Predict the 3D structure of the following.
Amino acid sequence: MRIYSILIEGVMTMMKKKSQEAIDILNTIVLNKKCEEMRILSLLYKYLGYGYFKISEYAKSIKYYQKVTSSEIDESSQYNKLLAEGI
């Protein structure tokens, strides 16, 4: 359950426009092997893609968006991915 708390903290921090801080928080989850079992990777990758997009690190943004399967990517994430690829 601690992973969900960290995820929520990262998302809330992102909403407060503290992108780099949110990325740091979310990256702590990536290092945790339990998140693979909890099926939150897709959501985590979308937020990391968005965070890196917001701070203009487009290569990293694309890297995370590409980890999201086509059936799980939402329209906003797909749009940001296309923008990042175009830049």
Observations:
- The mean pLDDT is 89.
